UniProtKB/TrEMBL annotation:
Name used for this protein in its record: DNA mismatch repair protein MutS
Domain DNA mismatch repair proteins mutS family per the UniProt entry, residue ranges: 339-524
GO MF annotation, one: mismatched DNA binding
An example Gene Ontology CC term for this record: cytosol
UniProt source species: Marivirga salinarum
Signal sequence, start to end: none
InterPro entries in UniProt: DNA_mismatch_repair_MutS_C, MutS, P-loop_NTPase
Keywords: ATP-binding, DNA-binding, Membrane, Nucleotide-binding, Transmembrane, Transmembrane helix
Length: 538
């Protein structure tokens, strides 16, 4: 199971509004609802590759301020389908109410926290998984139950039944414990479903503005009518929570004798199957409400945020004071693409890749949560694709270069559609030689920037910046070397990088003088050859 411990600064009390959680994140369960959900209604889904490039799990741990496991699953799904069901004006009003009304906020937190046990993760399985079908021997169960009852009563009148009853007990015990394997999954999920219905009913009765789905009332009533048939699961869950009670043994014996558990189990499954759409509606309603509470808490916690502006899609991306939310005391930057793509130059660790991730993260949170980590942020609705953290696929015998070729080929195909894309690339084609890297890189980047797409790409190749200066706006990050120390200001600057400090940094770090001298001579000779090659013929 994939476990993550939140490494951010935590509050001692997880439920303090605006604070980051300090719990362990069970991503195998958090992501399961997203992985099984139908995504046909989503105009864009973040791929696993994009999530890996952007450290999505770390981002989620920072953004997640939900009170319930259902809220966690819903928020994760919503972020991964970030161009889908955006925040409405009515929901923004509710977010503001939650922020301003402490009494309302406490009420919501108290109710939603009832679904904060790990078992609440299983609720989604009730409507996403196909219910178990009753086996052929299920039809014999009522007969065996009645026969067992008659046999036990007959013990008072006939000694023959002393031999019959043990046989029936053995048969019934086999069926009982065979069914236990199926029952284990539902022992946890169905009691949580009953709890979900009670929470939805309580919240809906308290304030009709909490929910916008007109079908919610019908779904609450539907589950209310059938929850009495789930009593077996509630009782089983309660008894398992206290294994020392003597009642457990007596209850288990009665269930075995009359095969009560399998009979009620498959009847309950039929009712679950008939009400899957109602369970789904309740799940989404509570999950979305908890997500709105989370957004309110997030905005309170970060303080510095703005609402994104999607009104002028042809303008591209314009950001004032944009920052990366996961970096403490992050340096802010401004950028205005004016509809053009961006090429970044700069040395290692100067901030190029971090800035690209900053743009991507703000794109996701802006579209999904209507929240931007900036003073002002304007952008079009886009589909996000990236090629930042590519590695060799040794299992399939693919080199780094072939992995990158495959990823960028997918970008090229998507760029030809009518949808606006934001393509993020870090050091394009760095798995091949210099001449072919620059040549192929120029051709691909020119192609990707067409069709109303935006590209953010970083490179060490100054030649690539010269070749693309008409199609791309050039920016750079640079370091400052003074007193044999290297400092980075992480400020975005216009134009391409004009200084070269790589050899100087080697010198500062104590490389032998002979290496430094030879490197400088070689660099000088290459510069001379390049400048000569660029001179026009006489």
């Amino acid at each position: 199971m994939k476990l993550f411990k939140n490494k951010f600064k935590n509050s001692k009390n997880d439920k303090v509004f605006g604070k980051i959680k300090s719990e362990t994140f069970l991503f195998s369960w958090i992501s399961e609802y997203f992985l099984k959900a139908h995504k046909s209604e989503s105009s864009h889904v973040l791929s696993d590759e994009v999530c890996d490039d952007l450290d999505f799990d770390e981002l989620f741990m920072f953004l997640d301020r939900t009170n319930s496991k259902i809220g966690q699953q819903y928020l994760y799904h919503h972020l991964r389908t970030c161009n889908g069901n955006t925040i409405t004006k009515e929901e923004e009003y509710l977010i503001r109410r939650i922020n301003e009304d402490e009494q309302l906020r406490s009420f919501l937190e108290k109710q939603l926290s009832k679904l904060d046990q790990k078992e609440a993760f299983y609720i989604a399985k009730l409507f996403q998984d196909k219910p178990i079908e009753a086996p052929k021997w299920y039809r014999l169960l009522p007969f065996l139950s009645a026969l067992s009852f008659v046999a036990i009563i007959s013990l008072l009148f006939s000694t023959i039944m002393v031999y019959v009853v043990p046989v029936l007990v053995i048969i019934n015990m086999g069926l009982h414990y065979r069914n236990k394997n199926h029952l284990a999954h539902y022992i946890s999920s169905i009691p949580e479903l009953v709890k979900l219905q009670a929470v939805a009913k309580k919240l809906n009765g308290h304030d009709c503005d909490f929910f916008t789905d007109e079908k919610l009332d019908k779904s609450i009533s539907a589950i209310d009518k059938v929850k009495k048939h789930f009593y077996l699961f509630q009782m089983e869950n309660k008894v398992q929570g206290d294994m020392t009670t003597a009642s457990w043994g007596i209850l288990e014996l009665i269930k075995i004798m009359f095969v009560i558990e399998p009979i009620l189990f498959f009847k309950a499954l039929k009712r679950i199957k008939r009400n899957q759409k109602h369970i789904n509606i309740l799940f989404n309603a509570i999950g979305r409400l908890d997500m709105l509470c989370s957004i309110s808490s997030l905005r309170t916690g970060i303080g510095n945020y703005c609402f994104p502006d999607f009104s002028n899609s042809e303008r591209g991306i314009k950001a004032d004071g944009i920052y990366h939310p996961l970096i403490e005391n992050c340096v802010i930057n401004d950028i205005d693409t004016a509809g053009k793509s961006i090429l970044l130059t700069g040395s290692n660790m100067s901030g190029k890749t971090t800035f690209i991730r900053t743009i991507a993260i703000n794109t996701i949170t802006s579209m999904a949560l209507n929240t931007s980590f900036a003073e002002a942020f304007q952008m079009p609705k886009v589909r996000l694709m990236s090629a930042i953290r590519i590695s060799d696929d040794l299992m399939n015998e693919k080199s780094y270069y072939f992995e990158e070729v495959s990823t960028i080929k997918e970008m090229i195909t998507c760029s030809e559609s009518r949808n606006c894309h934001l393509f993020l690339l870090d050091e394009i084609f760095k798995g091949t030689n210099t001449i072919e890297r620059i040549s192929a890189g120029k051709a691909v980047l020119s192609y990707l920037a067409k069709h109303n797409n935006l590209v953010f790409v970083s490179t060490h190749d100054i030649e690539l910046a010269d070749l693309l200066k008409e199609e791309y706006d050039l920016y750079h990050f640079s370091e400052i070397i003074s007193n044999n120390e290297v400092d980075f200001d992480y400020k975005l600057k216009e134009g391409k990088l004009k200084t070269r400090n790589a050899i100087r940094i080697l010198d500062i770090n104590g490389y032998p003088k002979t290496i430094i001298e030879e490197a400088e001579k070689t660099a000088g000779r290459l510069d001379l050859e390049n400048s000569t090659a660029k001179m026009p013929p006489q």
